[in-house]
């Protein structure tokens, strides 16, 4: 589930490569073990080729306090990857003529703003205009509490509408919460049961389910965020995100599900084509995750301290999934490394070597930096033996010292290179760079 997070810039670069007939699993092992060793990542990864699992890896702990290591069978909250499951369930309902893409939501929620003009399709591809309830100011005061459909509808309704339905697309968790309730209405069953009957049982997914199961909880990973150490995160109550973000699974189960979806084992070819149709970059429970010249599609997720992603490369028959309970690194960077391993593109295992500078050396870089055309300024300040960066109106980011003039914030893939002679700073992220001048 996408929550309020800090990102300065996001970019994707494109070049050319070919698929590797074999994966250097030892190097991938070393990569993930290095991330884990340096408190950057805990979780599981799975990769398949032509529906056959080629690689599974788990690093870190599912429970740090009790020193219980993660296994490939460890279960994680998958956040917004749940939306792909929910979209499949909706298309199954459409195939059974229970609803249609053109069905308007006033049939289910007559009090919802613009309900008569919002269709099932608008909910699926985030073109409904319904405001995202996770962006509300008070969200963090109640997200751990159990909510009924009535309560969630009141919250979503009170958020109002951001634009006329169908005029543009904007990501909103509200859309998929409403789709969850629509499923419950038309099938006369709870979302968890619909998921189990329609997807989990047919695919024999051993570790995939909605919410928290008391029986299975012993294999679930707790989630953490990192400051100077891993700190436990509270759990969002499953009744809040519903099918927008409350499913739990393993990386291996996610690969099996993804393969079944794109091999038309869950929904018909026409339904799959509709799911994959992009409108302003939005599919129905899917996004374009192409890597360089390889066509990829999938979805990512983030809820509490959990992060996840599924990606399918149709032409090559390749699928990978990541499920994490602790990430102090940018998920895009991990995804890019996995893709490079798949397509035999060179990548480096980061060293995470840090350097200690004196206060006098650090003070040289402090100040405010700006550049013409950038909508923000970045203030650099000293914090004990390192620096912090703060963009206009954003949170303070602790930086790691990589050399006498290079600092990073790995969670967002940011690298700052200071050039004292020029009184400037180079901001690098995602293959792009911007030079900012010290004011």
Automatic annotation (TrEMBL):
Pfam family, one: Beta-lactamase
EC class name: hydrolase
Keyword terms of this UniProt record: Hydrolase
EC number: 3.1.1.103
One Gene Ontology term of the molecular function aspect: hydrolase activity
Residues annotated as domain Beta-lactamase-related: 30-329
InterPro entries reported for this sequence: AmpC-like (IPR050491), Beta-lactam-related (IPR001466), Beta-lactam/transpept-like (IPR012338)
Protein name: Serine hydrolase domain-containing protein
Organism per entry: Paenimyroides ceti
């Amino acid at each position: 589930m996408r929550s309020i997070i800090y990102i300065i810039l996001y970019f994707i670069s494109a070049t050319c490569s070919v698929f590797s007939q074999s994966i250097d699993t030892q190097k991938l092992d070393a990569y993930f073990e290095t991330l884990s060793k340096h408190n950057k990542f805990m979780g599981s990864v799975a990769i398949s080729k032509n529906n056959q699992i080629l690689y599974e890896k788990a690093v870190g702990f599912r429970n740090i306090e009790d020193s219980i290591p993660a296994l490939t069978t460890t279960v994680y909250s998958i956040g917004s990857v749940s939306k792909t499951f929910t979209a499949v369930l909706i298309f199954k309902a459409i195939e059974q003529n229970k609803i249609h893409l053109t069905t308007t939501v006033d049939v289910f929620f007559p009090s919802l703003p613009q309900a008569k003009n919002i269709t099932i399709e608008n909910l699926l591809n985030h073109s409904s205009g319904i405001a995202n309830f996770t962006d509300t100011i008070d969200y963090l005061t109640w997200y751990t509490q159990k909510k009924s459909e009535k309560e969630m509808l009141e919250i979503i309704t009170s958020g109002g509408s951001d634009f006329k339905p169908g005029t543009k697309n904007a990501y909103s968790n509200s859309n998929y919460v409403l789709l969850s309730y629509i499923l419950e209405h038309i099938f006369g069953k709870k979302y968890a049961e619909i998921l189990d009957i329609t997807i989990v049982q047919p695919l024999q997914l051993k570790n995939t389910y909605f919410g928290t199961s008391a029986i299975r909880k012993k294999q679930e990973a707790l989630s953490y965020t990192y400051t100077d150490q891993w700190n436990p995160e509270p759990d969002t109550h499953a009744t809040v995100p519903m099918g927008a973000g409350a499913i739990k699974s393993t990386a291996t189960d996610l690969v099996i599900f993804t393969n079944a979806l794109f091999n038309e084992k869950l929904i018909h070819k026409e339904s799959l084509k509709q799911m994959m149709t992009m409108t302003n970059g939005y599919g129905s429970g899917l996004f374009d995750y192409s890597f360089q010249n390889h066509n990829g599609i999938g979805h990512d997720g983030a809820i509490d301290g959990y992060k996840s992603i599924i990606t399918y490369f149709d032409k090559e028959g390749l699928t990978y999934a990541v499920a994490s309970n602790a990430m102090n690194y940018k998920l895009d960077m991990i995804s890019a490394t996995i893709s490079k391993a798949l397509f035999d593109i060179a990548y480096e295992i980061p060293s995470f070597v840090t350097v200690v500078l004196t206060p006098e050396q650090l003070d040289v870089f402090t100040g405010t930096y700006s550049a013409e055309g950038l909508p923000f300024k970045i203030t650099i300040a000293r914090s004990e033996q390192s620096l912090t960066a703060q963009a206009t109106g954003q949170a303070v980011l602790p930086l790691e010292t990589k050399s006498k003039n290079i600092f990073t914030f790995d969670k967002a893939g940011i690298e700052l290179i200071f050039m004292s002679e020029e009184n400037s700073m180079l901001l690098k992220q995602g293959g792009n760079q911007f030079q900012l001048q010290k004011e």
